[in-house]
Amino acid sequence: MTIKLNDVKNIAEKLENPLFVVGGLIRNYLISGEINTDIDLCGAYKTEELLPVLIDCGFFVVAEYKRTGTIVFTKNGVKYEYTTFRTESYNVGGNHTPFEVCFTDDVIADAKRRDFTCNAVYYDIKKKQITDPLNKGVADIKNRVLDTVISPDKVFASDGLRLMRLARFCGELSFSPKKSVIVSAEKNRYNVSDISGERIYSELKSILYADKKYSFSGANGHIVALNVLNDIGVINVLFGIDKADFDSVIKIVRSDVSDRLSAFLYGVISLSDDTKKALKNINTRLKPDKKTVGKIKRFLSFDEFLSQKNSKGRIRYFLAVNRDLIKDYLSVKKAQGTTGKNAGARQNADKLLSVLLKMEKEGAPFSFSDLNIGAQEIINCGVIGKDIQVIREKLLFYAVNHPKKNKKDNLQKLLMKLTRKSY
C-alpha cells in the first residue's frame, strides 16, 4: 500500500527509526482513498531530534511544545503536526489537559492514549505499510464502527471533549457507535462541563456542518451528530434542555437556513422563558463570535416586533429593511412547529413570506440605495445631522408601500412636504 506523501517521505528517508502518519488521514484513506491536507505524524523521536531534519528538508517550523513532544510545521501550503509517542495521565473530570506526559518508543502505548480505534491506525512512510497496534482499527473502519481504544469509561473520564468528538465522528464518518460507548458517554456526560467554552464552541460548529466535512459524509450527518449529543445528555448539560424539547431545535437545523450556527443557538435560546438571560449565559459560556451574536439578537428582535400589533405598512417596511436575514428567520419559525410556545409559527411565517415574495415581484425597494432619490438631495433641502436618516426612513417607508411611486418626481414632492412640515 502506497500513500503519496512526497514532502514527508523526504523526512522519513533521513531517519533511522520509522516515521508514521496517524489518525484522520489514514482513516479517511481507508474509507475513500481521500488524503487530508492536514497531516498528523508521530514516532519515537523527541522534538529536539527531529527539528534539524525538518529544517534540512526545507520545512518551516511554526511552533514547538516540548512538554507534549509536539512540533507544528508547514511546507507548500500544507500543515503538519508531529508528536512523539507518549502516554498521558489525566485527573478525573475530563478537563482535556493531561497532568503528566511520558514519552515512549512503544507504538501500542501511544495508540492507547488516543480516543477511538479508527484514529489509532498508523502508516509507516518508509515501509509503505499500515500498522494497526490494537488490531481493531482497520476492522472498525471497514465495518463503520466507532469504538474506544480502551475502556470507554476511562476515555471519557479523562477528556470530556471526547463526548463531542464522539457525536461529530458519528456525523462526519457515518459510523455507528458501539452500545457500550453510548452507555459510557451518557454516564460521563457531566465531564463536558470541565471543557472550555471556546473548545465546545469549536466542536459545535463542526458538528453543525458534519454533513459537509467529507465527500463520503452522510447528507444528514449534522442531524445524526446532534441526536447523539442529545441521546447521551450533553445537550442537557450544556444548555439545560430536556431531550424531548430539543426536537424543535433539530427541526430548525433541518430547515433551509444559510447559517445553521446562529439558527441553532437562537433555537436553544427561544426554548427559555427568559431569552435575554439565556443569551447572556451562552455569551458567557461559549463566547460566540460577534457576527453570530448579532444575528441571534436580530432574530430575538424580530420575535418582539411580530408579537406586537402592526399595520400592513409597518410589516412591509420591517420585511424590507431586514431582507438579509428575514428568509432565514422565517425558515426557523416554520420549522419550530405549531404547538406550545410556538403555536401558529408556521402559519405566520407562511403569511409573511407570501408578503415578501409579493414585494419582490412588485419591485419594492429594500434599502436606501434602491430609492430613486439620494441623500444629497435631502441635504440640499436643508436637512442636517440625524434628521437626514429620519427623512430617508420616511421616504423608504413610503416607497416600500407604494412601489410604483418609487420615482424621482414622486419622492421629490414627498421630500418637499416632509421638509416643510419639519422645518
Task: Describe this protein's structure.
The chain has 423 residues and is α+β, with helices and mostly antiparallel strands. Among the domains are: 1-143, 2-Layer Sandwich (Beta Polymerase, domain 2); 368-422. The protein contains 21 helices and eleven strands. It has a seven-stranded mixed β-sheet. Strand 3 (60-65) and strand 4 (70-75) form a beta hairpin.
Brief rundown of the structure:
With 423 residues, the protein is α+β, with helices and mostly antiparallel strands.
**Beginning-to-end CA distance, first to last residue:** 83 Å
Q: So what's the overall shape?
A: elongated
CATH topology call of the domain at 1-143: Beta Polymerase, domain 2
CATH class of the domain at 1-143: Alpha Beta
CATH architecture of the domain at 1-143: 2-Layer Sandwich
Strand order of the largest sheet: 3-4-5-2-1-8-9
Number of strands: 11
Helical amount among residues, as a percent range?
40-55%
Radius of gyration: 28 Å
How many strands, which pairing sense, and closed or not: the largest β-sheet? 7 strands, mixed
The share of residues in extended strands comes to 5-15%
Query: Could you name the ranges where pLDDT drops below 50 across 5 or more consecutive residues?
Result: none
User: What's the number of helices?
Assistant: 21
Decide which structural class fits the backbone.
alpha+beta
- Classified in CATH, the superfamily of the domain at 1-143 is Beta Polymerase, domain 2
